[in-house]
Write a structure and sequence with these properties.
The protein is an alpha+beta fold. The chain has two domains: about 70 residues, Double Stranded RNA Binding Domain, CATH 3.30.160; about 80 residues, Ribosomal Protein S5, domain 2 (2-Layer Sandwich), CATH 3.30.230. It has five helices and eight strands. The strands form two sheets. A four-stranded antiparallel sheet has the order 1-2-3-4. Strands 5-6-8-7 form a four-stranded mixed sheet. Strand 2 and strand 3 form a beta hairpin. The longest helix has 14 residues.
């Protein structure tokens, strides 16, 4: 009995992807230089799901495809308040890159730069203020932003952890 492969993965169609970083990696051998490409990709559905992945290959397109596949495997749910901002201030730290994210009033928009903006927009955050502290390495800033988003908790989640009702907090 022949098995048919289902290439119509519903998760892939729902997630947008954005290339954060493309780099050329050089390995020097006695035979000369060997070039490869590394890519970092962020995926998200702009409704609370976001993921990040990296990939390396001999061709740019292959590296992006690998990174996209890795990002789809690492998708996490982000706690959004009113589907536009985060419930409270948070900090994420990866290496020497530190990213501070703060909730903002409606209509503020995404105040963030570069890699942090890509992660926040694909996560579905519409009103937020962010500040990159320390290192400005794009990949580490993106990872730190994702780490900060992961650490955010809703009041309902905190109440559940404490064994109380939301009104008691």
């Amino acid at each position: 009995m022949a098995r048919t492969q289902n290439n119509n993965d519903p998760k892939k169609k729902l997630l947008e992807e954005k290339v954060i970083n493309l780099g050329r990696v050089t390995k020097v051998t006695k035979g000369g230089r060997h070039f490869r490409f590394s890519a970092t990709v962020v995926v998200g559905n702009r409704k609370g799901l976001v993921g990040m992945g990296t990939g390396k290959a001999n061709e740019v397109n292959d590296a992006i495809a690998k990174a996209s596949k890795a990002a789809n495997k690492n998708v996490v749910r982000v706690a959004l308040e009113d589907n536009r901002t985060i419930p409270h201030e948070a900090t994420g730290k990866i290496g020497r890159a530190v990213v501070l994210i703060k909730p903002a009033k409606e209509g503020t928009g995404v105040i963030a730069g570069g890699a942090a903006r890509a992660v926040l927009e694909l996560a579905g955050v519409r009103d937020i203020v962010s500040k990159s502290l320390g290192s400005n390495t794009q990949v580490n800033v993106a990872k730190a932003t994702l780490e900060a988003l992961k650490s955010v908790r809703t009041p309902a989640k905190i109440a559940l952890l404490r064994g109380k009702k939301v009104e008691e907090l």
